[in-house]
């Protein structure tokens, strides 16, 4: 296993499982953790899509396997954790990143769209974490990072998504309370506007040009630009390092300002 970043390199070669890592923020985190020296289980709905990320990591000299699994499905979650543990080793780092949006104003939102968002973000993080925590508590070392969002603070048209992302913050703080004594930390990263397929799909739904939308959004972001998946991966990398062992139960907004 190779590592290009000696400062962030794990002292022990840990095994990370990153959900929703076929693309976007999850793929950037998977690549970053691999460069930090971790073996990575790339988990996404479509195994072929997961394989693209895993193969790219292997080509860079890292270790990775690809798994197709729906994180909101209890059996899939257990299978994914078991497979990563069997092929790479005990899962001591879990990134709950898989996510979907089903935006609509409250009066038009269907129960199906409410349930879909709750199931992927909240049920998914719950069943994945419950499956992985056994490896972490046994190892007396673990790192859990949950992807929240600035939408947790409220966002028009996202009553389902904002509730799920706020829920993940409470979930994170409770994990920190329960698992701290086992050397396991849990933190949430709450991104603002990050350039991915998710934000591109939102632009399409709103009928606005994505590049124009980014320029307009940048005017309201204190650092004057939208974020990249690598901006989020850098924070996740720190939270998963040995150096972050005293950081737990926190929500870190990564939004180019206090909120955007
Ligand atoms: P993305 O580009 O849409 O990628 C999400 C990935 O998750 C996709 O590959 C998707 O697979 C996968 N996924 C969806 N449902 C899944 C399930 N049930 N099981 C396994 N994988 C599943 O999204 P992103 O922008 O990278 O966002 C990553 C995370 O950051 C999400 O939790 C999102 O809510 C959060 N976030 C994003 C932003 C932003 O501005 N982009 C801001 C704040 C928070 P399919 O393609 O097959 O659906």
TrEMBL record:
Report keywords, A-Z. Answer: Oxidoreductase
Q: Which InterPro entries does the annotation name?
A: KR_dom, NAD(P)-bd_dom_sf, Sc_DH/Rdtase_CS, SDR, SDR_fam
Top enzyme class, one word, equals oxidoreductase
Could you say which EC number(s) this protein's record lists? 1.1.1.100
Official protein name in the record: 3-oxoacyl-[acyl-carrier protein] reductase
Keyword Methyltransferase attributed: no
Species name for this entry? Microlunatus panaciterrae
Q: What protein family is recorded? A: Belongs to the short-chain dehydrogenases/reductases (SDR) family.
Q: Where is the Ketoreductase domain?
A: 14-192
Listed SMART domains: PKS_KR
Give GO MF terms, alphabetically: 3-oxoacyl-[acyl-carrier-protein] reductase (NADPH) activity
Give the highest taxon in the source lineage.
Bacteria
Q: Which PROSITE patterns match?
A: ADH_SHORT
């Amino acid at each position: 296993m190779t590592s290009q970043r000696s400062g962030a390199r794990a002292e022990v070669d840990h095994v990370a499982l990153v959900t929703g890592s076929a693309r976007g923020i999850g793929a950037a985190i998977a690549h970053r953790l691999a460069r930090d020296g971790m073996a990575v289980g790339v988990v996404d709905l479509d195994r072929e899509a997961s394989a693209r990320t895993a193969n790219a990591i292997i080509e860079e000299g890292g270790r990775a396997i690809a798994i197709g699994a729906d994180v909101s499905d209890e059996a899939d979650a257990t299978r994914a954790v078991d497979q990563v543990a069997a092929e790479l080793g005990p899962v001591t780092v879990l990134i709950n990143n898989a996510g979907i949006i089903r935006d609509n104003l409250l009066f038009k939102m269907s129960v199906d769209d409410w349930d879909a968002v709750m199931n992927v973000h909240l049920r998914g993080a719950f069943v994945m974490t419950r499956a992985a925590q056994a490896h972490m508590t046994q190892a007396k070392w673990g790192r859990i990072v949950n992807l929240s969002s600035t939408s947790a603070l409220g966002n028009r048209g996202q009553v389902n998504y904002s509730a799920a992302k706020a829920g993940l913050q409470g979930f994170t703080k409770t994990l920190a309370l329960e698992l701290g004594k086992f050397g396991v930390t849990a933190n949430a990263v709450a991104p603002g506007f990050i350039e991915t397929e998710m934000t591109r799909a939102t632009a399409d739904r709103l009928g606005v040009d994505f590049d124009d939308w980014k320029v307009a959004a940048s005017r309201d972001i204190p650092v004057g630009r939208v974020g990249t998946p690598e901006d989020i991966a850098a924070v996740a990398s720190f939270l998963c390092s040995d150096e972050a062992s005293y950081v737990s139960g926190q929500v870190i907004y990564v939004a180019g300002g206090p909120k955007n």
